[in-house]
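Hey,

Quick one before I head out. I ran the complex with adenosine-5'-triphosphate overnight. Inputs first:
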Amino acid sequence: MTETLHPIETLLTTRRTVVCLGPGGVGKTTTSAALALRAAGLGRKTLVLTVDPAHRLANSLGLDRFDNDEQEISRERFEAAGVPYVAPLYAMMLDTKRVFDDIVERYAPNPEVRSRILASPFYKEASTRLAGSQEYMAMEKLYALLQERRYDLIVLDTPPTVHALDFLDAPGRLEEFMTLGDDGLAAKGGRALGRLGLGFLRANTAILKGAGKFLGADVFTDILSFIGDFQTMYAGFRDRAAAVKRFMRSDEIAFLVITGPERASIDEGLFLRERLVADRMPFASFLVNRTRLPVDDAGPLEDETPEVLAALRHAAERMGVLAARDARELARLDKALGHQALRIPESADDICALRDLHRYAGTVLA
Ligand SMILES: Nc1ncnc2c1ncn2[C@@H]1O[C@H](COP(=O)(O)OP(=O)(O)OP(=O)(O)O)[C@@H](O)[C@H]1O
Ligand SMILES: [Mg+2]
């Protein structure tokens, strides 16, 4: 007899990439790790590319080192956690600067330009502090990993941003900018720079605009020469952005929208889903994490003191109020979706060890 797969398990076994998208703090990283664990359990060689995992979660994934190389979660770790080992599971932390460095190393047209870019003080700024860069570099890393074809599946966690849309927009914005024309970037001035919406270029826009007033000629020349050097790699950026954009619309990827049960969170999720659908990116499922359920059995209470009993009753009442609120929001969501969103219950325990992730995956895929 073959077991029927949960629809998300079907994605995990058939797609090359599954992306967890959603507002900040809703459980994207936790869910990505748990789904990757399940995928490996289903026999796929899987990588979870995480962004800023909580310290203890990083530890259980073997990511206690400060690098962004992939770490295999050893068979021994699986055994110690009592989780069946089927296929290899790897975890990697997205390190924006390292990804950027790798791109420069790989795609700079010659060693001179490469060293100049890497040594430029503006490069340091650009590669560590750019707004929107994490989103873009996650895409670059995804692209590089897909090219290497070392994994059956990549589960992609997305950055803790208040604007999850930035992630979807990153390749398009870059591509649009890169195709503006061939006249020099510096000549286009601040307006063109601003269109890219990447923080370092925005910062440079401000610098460029005010350069005459605030900066010495040396600094101004440095900036222009940095931009000039950087420009030599633009065709590559543009081509990769276009490739990622195509991949994001293919049937090899699936997007999961994860939210919390609060109204604002659900609304952002609905907005994200609309955008995915409008842009023909394969939206697959809506998951509402940390849904609160009414407490219907508080267990044997006879031996408790009146104070403890009162406190427990109060907690149960409060939980009932929150559960009712969540139920209302979920009903509204189901109506908007035209089907039932997946609910993931609020867990009383932390989710950081491998065995917690295994248990959590069980509740997601129940
Ligand atoms: N169902 C759940 N029940 C209880 N706690 C949960 C649940 N899901 C996630 N958490 C906890 O919520 C916290 C945030 O989760 P996580 O880091 O996965 O969110 P995130 O969406 O990746 O956040 P960010 O946007 O900051 O990256 C973690 O401490 C995690 O253990
Ligand atoms: Mg996260």
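The domain at 7-109+128-170+244-297+320-364 is CATH 3.40.50.300 (Rossmann fold).

Talk tomorrow,
K.
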